[in-house]
Design goal:
This protein is an alpha+beta fold and about 220 residues long. The chain contains three helices and 13 strands; from the N terminus they run αββββββββαββββαβ. The protein has one domain: Beta Barrel (Porin), CATH 2.40.160. The strands form two sheets. It has an eight-stranded antiparallel β-barrel. A hairpin with a 7-residue loop joins strand 10 and strand 11. The longest helix has 22 residues. It is elongated and about 70 Å long. This is Outer membrane protein beta-barrel domain-containing protein. It comes from Noviherbaspirillum aridicola.
Length: about 220
């Protein structure tokens, strides 16, 4: 073999011996994080990366001891995940970090008599103003979970599932009255009683500092 042909031959042999990993793909999913879209990036036969977004708007009524809230939940997350396939099969262990822009907002609904009752005191809704509640979570949160699904080595469809926990921390709650028209001493007393109500509301949402993630999806590998 001529000397100038040796290098091309070695390169061809190296390419033939290199392992062929899964294809880049996209996954559409639905679950507790809402509707999602992830880009799947294979790294090796036992390692892969995913970058994705999730979102959903949901409305419901939430009741505490004293107040019912017309609540709106906005789920918004951006994920950077690393998948490890310990047996080089479809089972995976996942870790990563999530930018969490989810929040819960609500507007208080007066009782049948047109009043609120906070910390043992009754306030007419007509003069108490509009009651606003908000719950925010830590912006950057770690994620840990397990799952099933791996992009095939050839183009095609596949299924996936994730089960894990988003550690978003203790919620930051806000509760205030906007537009109190009662005399100043009553508005000051209302603010103090709302703080007591806020602490109770905070206790009600404390369980969500560890948010369960359960979703299923379908993927296409290019």
């Amino acid at each position: 073999m001529k000397k100038n042909a040796i290098l091309p031959a070695l390169l061809a042999l190296g390419c033939a011996a290199s392992p062929v990993y899964a294809q880049v793909g996209l996954t559409g999913s639905i679950g507790t994080t809402g509707l999602g879209l992830h880009l799947n990036l294979p790294v090796s036969d036992q390692l892969g990366a995913r970058i994705g977004v999730n979102g959903l708007n949901y409305s419901d009524d939430i009741r505490t001891t004293n107040v019912e809230y017309d609540a709106r939940l906005k789920l918004r997350t951006l994920e950077a995940l690393l998948d490890y396939y310990p047996m080089a099969g479809s089972f995976r262990v996942t870790g990563g970090v999530v930018y969490n822009d989810s929040r819960l907002t609500g507007t208080g609904t007066p009782r049948a008599g047109g009043s609120y009752r906070f910390n043992g005191t009754t306030y007419p809704a007509a003069t108490a103003g509009e009651l606003e509640a908000r719950v925010d979570f830590r912006k950057f949160a770690p994620y840990l979970g397990i799952g099933f699904g791996k992009a095939p080595k050839e183009s095609g469809w596949s299924f996936s599932a994730d089960l894990g926990v988003l550690f978003q921390g203790s919620p930051d709650t806000t509760l205030r009255s906007r537009g109190c028209t009662a005399p100043a001493p009553l508005c000051t007393a209302l603010a103090a009683d709302l703080e007591a109500e806020r602490r109770e509301f905070e206790d009600d949402v404390e369980d969500y500092k560890a948010f369960p993630v359960l979703r299923v999806g379908v993927s296409y590998a290019f």
